[in-house]
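example protein:
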Amino acid sequence: MVNLVKEKLENGQKVIGTMFQLGCPTAVECLGISGLDFFIIDTEHAPVDVESIRLFILASEIRKITPFVRLKRISRDTVLNALDIGAGGLVAPGVETVQQVQELVGYAKYPPEGSRGLSLTRTSAYGYDGSATDINRYLERSNREVLVIPQCETRACLDDIEQIVSIKGVDGIFVGPYDLSLALGKPGDFDTPEFTAAIRKIVRACRKANKFVMIFTTNLERSRQYLDSGFDGIVFNSDADMFIDAYKKTLTELRTKTQAGVIQGVRNDIYGRYLSARNGNAPVNVANVLDTHRADIALIGSTLVLPDIGSLKTNLYIKDGRVSGISQEILPATETFDVSGKYVLPGIIDPHTHFGIGTDFDLDLQSETLSAAVGGLTTVGCFIGSKDARVNSYASLVEIIRQRSYTDVVPHFVIGTSEQIKEIPVLIKEFGIRTFKVYLHGIDGLIPAMDDAFVIDVMEELARTGIPCLLFVHCENDALVRRATRMANLKYGDQATISDWEETHPPMAEAEAIMRVAFFANQYKQPIYVVHVSSAEGAEMIKKIKAENPYVYAETTSPYLTVTADQFNSTIGLMEPPLRQQADQDRLWQAIVQREIDAIGTDNVTLTLAEKGDASNVWKAFPGYPALATHLMSILNEGVVNRGIPIEELVVPMTKRPAELLGLYPRKGTLLPGSDADLVVVDMNLCKTVNLQDLYSRADFSLFQGRELCCWPVMTIKNGIMVAQNGKPTGKRPSCKAIVSNSLSG
């Protein structure tokens, strides 16, 4: 008989089966009628005898559903019993070693592929099947059609998965998620970084060996995710569970309708208390409260990450642009989205962006905040640089942001002239600006470098206002950078690579400038925020200073944490400070984990290749690259998937901590009830190759183009408006604004 599952898999079709527990031929017929491709008779956990298996397989042949047998153990007798009765496939649980799998293949295959004994059983119509008259043809067909499937559910099997799938005669792998999660130390938790990494390893091994891969699941949404992310088939639940669930659903529907819509058990949960507070704690009927305060959006089945609190599996509700509640109950909402298996994070806050360097500010603002929103960012800090005074232009800036931006924008004003120092009191007292920036090293023709006296003048002017402000500082010793640049130019000339360019900005220049400006901060009691720490020396200096200086905060960027200089053979990776080496990246990650560095930004400078300049000459190219759309996914891919850092830790420097430093917390940086409904839903199992058309930036290059990243955002909600879904803009633009301290009151 032709194995229909094998045929479908070879044709690139997905297959769906179930675990068989009801234990009667009628149930097998029902499974076949339902349209399932296969079912697994479980002799490992169920008391099934050989005669029962024979009856089940007879029923399967009538209804054209392929029978698999999960073995009690790998042995010659269990394999022969299953195959001689007519099993279309063997699933072998508890695999530990390569030798076990080789034995399984040997028992299951006729010579020369194995050592299966030949007998005229029902699989050959007791010798009367036409093909059985030609023994060689019969043996070849049997070896071809019977599927041999080891089950990966132990750490030993996971460690040797590449060797196991490469064994001739192994057709595919069946993942047992419960035992695998148990082996990884988190029983039943399929969202841990360890489990996600294990799944990716298994899928990649199967793809490389051209073998299929299946997995057991009981969740519909998770099943779709598995099928979308590389699995060839799923074993969905068991027939017994499906039987129970179907009746429970029907009974719940019938009984709920007979009780006039009264929903039980709501009054005591978080959402119920929130609604009660909104109604002045007046005693009201629960059903009426839910009708009156129906949420605008409900996210059901989420793993909600609350920074510095932890994660929990719950439902989240949004109303009027705010988080209205968190509840285990499924409550009324105008729109309900099932996000089971996905993480819901506070909207990502990028404190460090630049717009308007390669083109007009308003054009950059519109395209790049959309790109940011698709990538899960909902608030950005933007440096406003100009040689002119800014008091008279501030109103137009606010209006441009209102009309064009897809994110809220925190304007940081760059102070580069003595006239701009004089503007500081007006910007603070009349407009509510609290964040400013100075450059110790600048960019020729665009940003002037400021000396120590200028920095002190700015600090003194900030102090005179009597209002707490945060001073961003680009920390590099200008003289050391210029000296190193001259030396590198003489050394490498026009043949300089991106790795050579790194020498133009020695880590010593960064560390020394941090030390120097931190001293000024301590003298003037002026909080400073060291932007884009790029080197191991810089991170180490931050650690030493913060141990005794309470006025220093620090940031690094996602590019410094995810790419290195030697990964680029053109100037697309050109930046100031430069991309560095693996040792620097490792030290920066250590600083993130130990919270020596407070925040992760992007230092986004959107450019086209034409605007960036000569692709082969570092001396003629402009520093900068787009980084907004890939910010979140690159950090999660490197931090969670590759380094095993819990997502709960990485959310803090991307949400809560920048919100605190910018004076936005708790309106932003969390998802507790009452906070702004700024959030991103992330599919940690979604892995895709980065293509420019998926980034929605005006830039025509990316640091990650052609590279596979996992952990993609699949939904971004800004102020309660769905801005992006499934990686694409929805066409809706939320109400966004320039955020300053005055606008945060109330």
Notes: The mean pLDDT is 89. Residues 486 and 504 are 8 Å apart (CA to CA). The radius of gyration is 31 Å. The chain has three domains: 4-245, 259-341, 345-744.
